[in-house]
Write a structure and sequence with these properties.
This protein is mainly β. It has one domain: Immunoglobulin-like. The protein is built from no helices and eleven strands. The strands form three sheets. Strands 4, 6, 7, 9, 10 and 11 form a six-stranded mixed beta sheet that branches. A hairpin with an 8-residue loop joins strand 10 and strand 11. It is elongated.
Length: 143
């Protein structure tokens, strides 16, 4: 186990307090890209700087140009990291509608229909969040 140590001193007595290191949690990337035809977005979440004890990460999805129920399955819930677990994958169902694109991106590769939604951490029951507390999921018929 990893521990943080805190020292305190009173005349004639020294105390050492050890605190477990549950770690910090973050989405591994600030954005991800999936084909709608894949049927699901697999979103990796990492636990770094410690892995002591059980930790619960709460999350929720938010509409951007993609709409819940039409383009993807809205969700909110918890991911439980057991002692020693360093990563989890959040799975969000995405729909392959092939109808009326929300955003058209023009590039050297032609026009691509792109929609997006956000997934964000609502709270962690163990330790503070790290640098990447949300991720944007891009989806479409682009690959």
């Amino acid at each position: 186990m990893n521990f943080k140590y805190q020292w305190s001193y009173n005349p004639g007595t020294m105390h050492v307090h050890m605190f477990p290191e549950p770690g910090t949690f973050e989405f591994s990337k600030p954005s991800l890209l999936f084909k709608e035809s894949a049927g699901r977005a697999l979103i990796p979440i990492e636990r770094t700087n410690g892995c002591d004890g059980k930790a619960v990460v709460t999350y929720k999805t938010e509409d951007m140009t993609a709409k819940a129920g039409q383009d993807y399955e809205a969700g909110a819930g918890e991911l439980v990291f057991e002692h020693g677990e360093l990563s989890k994958t959040l799975e969000i169902v995405i729909y392959d509608d092939k109808v009326s694109p929300t955003t058209v991106i023009r590039s050297n590769f032609g026009e691509k229909d792109i929609k997006k939604f956000n997934v964000k951490f609502m709270g962690i029951y163990a330790q503070v969040l790290s640098r990447c507390v949300d991720t944007t999921v891009f989806m479409g018929s682009l690959c």
